[in-house]
Amino acid sequence: MHDISMVSTLEVALDLPRERLIEWLYQMHLIRAFEETVEQLYAAGKMHGTMHLSIGQEAVAVGAIAALRPDDYITSTHRGHGHAIAKGQDIRAMLAELLGKETGVCRGRGGSMHLADLERGNLGANGIVAGGIPIAVGAGLSIRMQGQDRVVLCLFGDGAANHGNFHEGLNMAAIWRLPVVFLCENNQYAMSMPIRKAMAVPRVADRAAAYGIPGETVDGMDVLAVYRAVRAAVERARRGEGPTLIEAITYRYKGHSKSDRQVYRTKEEVQAWMARDPIARFRAWLIAQGWLSEAEAAEIEARARQAVEEALQIAEGDPEPRVDQLTEGVYAEDPSMPPLWIRQAFGSGTAVEPPPGTRELSYMEALREAMAQAMAADERVFLMGEDIGVYGGAFGVTQGLIERFGPDRVRDTPISENTIVGAGVGAALTGMRPIVEMQFMDFVTLAMEQTVLQAAKVRYMFGGKARVPLVLRLPGGSGTGAAAQHSESLEAWFVHVPGLKVVAPATPYDAKGLLLAALAEENPVIFVEHKLLYRTRGPVPEEPYVVPLGRAAVRRPGRHVTLVAYSVMVLRALEAAERLAAEGIEAEVIDLRTLKPYDAETVIASVRKTGRLLIVHEAPRLGGFGGELAAAIAQSEAFAYLEAPIVRLGGADVPIPYHPRLERAAVPQVEDIVEAARRLARLEI
């Protein structure tokens, strides 16, 4: 057994009324009864998927959350039933969720590992180890920026303490002095790996010193010890003194999940921990203090079990989700134009695709102007990323914004990509509208967990009740001699992820209008900016305006062949069309502008006219977005009008090389587009 040298708080008087202590005992019994009931339901085949029980850990959930105010936030774990109950979630809705009912707290879309109740401040249990830590950091940042005195309690297991999110998250919270209490439920095992083999230091709390924050280890089988430690940390956070790391030494009596055969520990070890059962200890102490009789204690336990039984009876009769509602809740859609946020920020008369006018800006200036106008109109909009402040961003896009809006809203971050994105998710969930910049699109590979498993999914798996207004700016593409790790075009990855939208503007006009439209979204938007476009120039209206997502632009009309492109390839397609026109081939050039959603109708109309389709993108042809578009056109009414095969022109299946001639050969150039279009128009393909 883990050596616990702390003096038990059961011997220390606390300023707590009897009624509150009795309520804690009831909550602990309620969690135990709930867990034992769902264990039986799972064994009977009435529950689907997996199940992670927290039997034995009730003191941590109850003691910690008792130290919070109702309006404080928590982030939870895959073993989060107890946290949810202690935060006040309805056990009937929880049971309905585990049974996969439409009346479940997440409408049967989340299940055991994804319980959430945003109205009660539960920002979600999380199926990803350490996945809630960056989100908690973002919620703490949101609290600070909104001038609130709330606190975030971030719960995680001992296995999470060895994850990059732990180190990135604690560091970021510490340097910004965020109101986050990090609470490690050290139940001795991260699945089967014992904590003693996973760390070189004796205790998780020892790591607090590395971040310059307080660290404390407490007896997690003692509800009062947990309460005392968390209360002090919460008070410290609320005073603006920053985060604390608390390690609660506890134990799970059951396996990691229901499929766990528990071959990694002995029955004797389990029995030794069960002898220190947190409910039995607390109950005995209350009786010894004269605050509770044996009969009253038995009545409290019976009442908790009855509450679970009654909730289950109702939940079992609740309706199942309907298959025709499968896709409800993936996106938060606003059909109005201009969108609601645009009307609120700039007025109902804000233009939608106005005439471009004569004033010219560069692509980067257009982006900067859009961000500045958004930040001036709505104080919830802020920027976050590496070197975006005084340095002005790797490509100078954010230059000058820190002088205008200050370092709180143009927020330089440590090199911590996953937590940068995750902090954006947490801030977005709690009322802010962050714009997060990765220095290079390639670096988003370090943030795929928070981008794909959190930002994209929380709305749906929380039953369509969450909103994540997050814009993730990704400078991508080749042509700068930066070689393989700084030159990728990864947009097709994100098109494949439900819950994300993907934008790729080609002109300064669209850069501004689409960025403002992306900011109006209540969904996470991947905003792709090709590095070669930053210094291109074009007409841009001075006033705010929007270019709607999902609306393509016909950049050049034609009748012989349709060229579909996006981002930098639009410029190359237009140049190719000029050369083709000299040969008598009139190419129609379509700029998709957004890839998800994309404008199939405009492409179909063009193909019906020309009978030929050439799709061009910089990303490798294999697995690129062109394949999706080609398949969609082949399955549409446009297929009957095709007079030749659909042709895709993409990059080579090679990492972008350093040598300039090789780099140029790796992606389509103007001459490649001319040759492919010429052969297609002449039916030589």
Topology (elements, then pairings):
Layout: H1 18-43, H2 58-66, E1 73-75, H3 81-86, H4 91-98, H5 132-145, E2 152-157, H6 164-175, E3 180-186, E4 189-190, E5 193-194, H7 195-198, E6 215-219, H8 223-238, E7 244-249, H9 267-274, H10 278-288, H11 294-316, H12 340-346, E8 351-352, E9 360-362, H13 363-377, E10 381-385, H14 401-405, E11 410-412, H15 417-429, E12 433-437, H16 448-455, H17 458-461, E13 471-476, H18 491-495, E14 501-503, H19 508-519, E15 525-530, E16 537-539, E17 545-546, E18 553-556, E19 561-565, H20 568-581, E20 587-591, E21 594-596, H21 600-610, E22 613-620, H22 625-634, E23 647-651, H23 660-665, H24 670-681
Parallel strand pairs: 1-2, 2-3, 3-7, 6-7, 8-17, 10-11, 10-12, 12-13, 13-15, 14-15, 19-20, 19-22, 22-23
Antiparallel strand pairs: 4-5, 9-16, 14-21, 18-20
Helix pairs in contact: 1-2, 1-10, 1-11, 2-8, 4-11, 5-6, 5-15, 13-19, 15-16, 20-24
